[in-house]
Amino acid sequence: MTEPQLTVSLPDELVEALAQRVAEIQAERHPADEDRWLDKRELADVLGCGVRWIEERLREGMPSAMLAGHRKFKLAEVERWLEAAGHLQHERYGGHVPTKSARPRPTEV
Question: Cα(70)–Cα(57) distance, rounded to whole angstroms?
Answer without folding.
Answer: 17
